[in-house]
Amino acid sequence: MIHQRKAVLIASQSPKGDYLPGIGKDVDNFKHFLLSPNGGAMHSADVTVLKDPSCQQVKDACQRADADFYQVYVSSHGYTNYCNERVICLTDGDLLDVDLFNDSDRQTVIPDACRKRPEGAAIGGIPWPQEKWKYATGDSAARDWFDSAIQACPYGEWIFHGTATNTFAFGSDDGGIFTNSLLDVIYDLQQTGAHEYLSLPFLIQQAAIRMAAEGSRQVPEQVWGGDASLLPFAIISPEFIPRIVRRPHQTQTETSKALFALGGLALGLYALSKIE
């Protein structure tokens, strides 16, 4: 039985880089997603939001968040150092992405920050329409379904970065490319009328296809942990938003095949445009 879920969301400026105008919006939207049925209907009290925290405040918050299922999201400046370690920049110093782990059974760290050598700018800000995620339901069938998905997931530690090593994380005032793509993929899938669990690797792959189709060279990647195919990140169902149009039920395989086909077509068109 899943007793506790915890999340720590970090938005941080840093004297090492330019001002990031949208990082507060990033974590606010990520929190709204976690509280929504699509994010598994987390309790608000179980989500800690840190804006411009010190290194010690981050460490303390992460250690207090020990749970059956623990998630960390970071929107900040970052870089890859010359020891090939992935660094998150905070107001008073730096932490490695692995410093955000605690003793939880299942834990995932998702930084949206640069990994360029030396330090480079990160991105921030996703000004979505509020109606996309602001429909938290508290205890509901969605929370029970997500707990079931967590139970089926083996214990482990995973880190997924929004960009590859020695590359920048791009964005604008309209939002970070990776975070925007990741959450927009879930939103689009919600509109299909399907009912299924969505693993984080699957969604990362779909976000990468979306980013490439839009002309981005930024490629998200898993940098820590083994097989994460059973690591849940979202669930979709027509029941979550009653106003959406219900369509015939699709299995996860059918939905995935359709998405891969569309993604392949988009990548092909993008490649042809570059050849021309």
Give a quick summary of the entry.
By secondary structure, the protein is an alpha/beta fold. The protein has helices at residues 23-35, 55-64, 141-151, 177-190, 200-213, 252-275; strands at 5-12, 47-51, 69-76, 78-80, 86-90, 93-96, 106-112, 156-161, 171-172, 175-176, 196-199, 221-224, 232-236.
Sketch the topology as an H/E string, one letter per element: EHEHEEEEEHEEEHEHEEH
For this structure, the CATH topology is Rossmann fold
Fraction of residues in helix: 25-40%
Unreliable segments of 5+ consecutive residues:
119-130, 242-253, 269-274
Mean pLDDT: 82
How many individual helices? 6
Strand content: 15-25%
**Count of spatially separate domains:** 1
Would you kindly provide a written description of the structure presented here, covering whatever features stand out?
The chain has 276 residues and is an alpha/beta fold. It has one domain: 3-Layer(aba) Sandwich (Rossmann fold), CATH 3.40.50.1460. The chain contains 6 helices and 13 strands. The strands form 4 sheets. Strands 2-1-3-7-8-12 form a 6-stranded mixed β-sheet, sandwiched between helices. Strands 4-5-6 form a 3-stranded antiparallel β-sheet, with no helix packed on it. Strands 9-10 form a two-stranded antiparallel ribbon. A hairpin with a 2-residue loop joins strand 5 and strand 6. Helix 4 packs across helix 5. The chain is globular, with a radius of gyration of 18 Å. The C terminus is likely disordered.
Features:
three-stranded antiparallel beta sheet, 276 residues, alpha/beta, 31% helix, Rossmann fold, 6 helices
